[in-house]
Amino acid sequence: MGLPGEGVLQGLAVTARTMTRRADTRQYPDVPPDLPPRSRGVIALREENCTVCMLCARECPDWCIYIESHKEEVAVPGAARPRQQNALDRFAIDFSLCMYCGICIEVCPFDALFWSPEFEYAEYDLRDLLHEQGRLGEWMATVPPPPAHDPRGEPAKEEAAARRPAPGAAGGGA
Amino acid sequence: MTSADWLLAALGTVAVAAGHRVVATDRLVRAGLHLVLCLGAVAGMYLVLTAEFLAWVQVLIYVGAVVVLLLFAVMLTRAPVGAAADLDRPGWTAPLVGGAAGLGLAALLVDAYRWTAVAPAAPGTPEALGAAVFRSWVLPFEVVSVLLLAALVGAIVVSRPGGRR
Amino acid sequence: MSLAELGLRVALVVVAFLTLPLVVGQAEHKVMAHMQGRLGPMYAGGFHGWAQLLADGVKFAQKEDLIPRGADGPVFRLAPAVALLPYLVVLLVIPLGPGDLVAQPLDAGLFFALAVLGVGVVSLLMAAWASANKYSLLGGLRGAAQLLGYELPLVLSAASVAMAAGTLSLPGIVAAWRPWWLLWQLPALLVFFTAALAEIRRPPFDMPIADSELVFGYLTEYTGLRFALFLLAEYVGIVVVAALTTVLFLGGWKGPFADASLGWLWTLLKVFAVSFAVIWLRVATPRLREDQLQRLCWQALVPVALGQLVLTAAVVTAT
Which residue in A158, C83, C105, C141 could disulfide with C123, CB within 3.0 to 4.6 Å? Predict the structure, then answer.
């Protein structure tokens, strides 16, 4: 330490400098926040894509996804037997339990679950945080388009596969 | 009686009543607070007697410092907030001695002055007081300061860790 | 001075007593927020939260008036009033402008102000003791030790100015003040300001209420209006200390021009500038430890104040 009171003067200088700058505060209810891309607000469901594979419900660490379904027989013309297909009856996520880990969205093989940045769904009753199918479907409208691909990043798997010459074309038939 | 007399009488009553509470109360800290009231009333009496400077000195030194020091010391002890049973000793000697001393002094004063009117002293302005202390009474003043200095040095020596070496 | 005029003067002082602390309190809200990169209150009253303190007052008035069962009731109830009253009385003798712009000119005004300020300690001890709470008691002990210690440099540095001006009257000191005193009395100014900060227990000298150690010190048990009165006392304290600093060291109503007509404005501007410094120091400095507090007082402030006294005496006798 140098002179006595040097630290105090430094503190005064820092606070004075901060005072002349604009505050970073955003007045939230008046001014909507601009959230970063891929914000995790709420989980949206695209019902048509769900095949009731139950992967999401099984991977969920705190078991907050409820799925109910029944089997339907679909008669396919020309087939020997009618096929069996799962039909979704209920899909619900309890956001009072959800810890926003996003594992369900990662594991869904059919792109039925998405992150939406909406976060204003607080409720007065804890039980109202259980979002049923219809509510989860409504969130789909708020899902942003996926961010553009990084031009210097690795190409997507599908693109790489499409660029690779087809095995049949190269071999010329064995 | 003039209004100054009435004021003096009222302040005197407050001072005496507060002084009585100081010794009669069974709560230690309340005794200190009553002492504040008592000394404040005395300061008010100085004010009525036009000893303005002395009144403020009384407030600054006695109310602001001495009583605070007293209360500070009381708080360092294990004194309870509520009433303390062992604070009051019943007895008739203390009122007797106190009353006799007070009445005796009063009688002495009354006898000394009888009905002679005494001209009021000049107002105790800081200027007059300074002139008195530093012109006529400078030697006693210096002696008192040396005494205080000795007391301070003595206090430091006594309270030093390790004692006398 | 007729009775009606005296009444008017006292009424004006009461108005100042009720409005200036609110202005300082609101300034503290906003200045502190911006110094910390925040905005502070923004909604109460519409424009930048100007009515926040009024809203706080309404909130305090609604709260339940609690007195702990073990507390010493009358003393507990009296303490906020004792905290507030000395400051109101001190405001009476502070000159706003030249001539007659002072509520009650006193021959020994400086001494009066210092004496009455000292009475404030009693309220602290009353609150601390009557609460029947360990934290309150510890806060009271710290407060008493701090206020006793810092009263000495406060009085010594004020005495230096009185010596330089040759009078104890506050208007007299301002009249005798010259701009070069800023340099001559600079050590006394610093000592007085620091000691006064400690006297009103503002950060960095808020050991008695240190909320991270003692909950809230001697105010722990206070709620509602009584707590609001203590808060008000703190802000009036800032105003009084700023006004005393202005009058003693910064030349009071003396400004760059038009002292006679605009004197009150210069005084108010200086008071607000010093109040700003008080708030600024609160934001910029951490709380002192108890031993640092005492060391600062006895090893720095008191010697500097004594040195200043010697210097002042030398200059006064030389000229």
Answer: C83
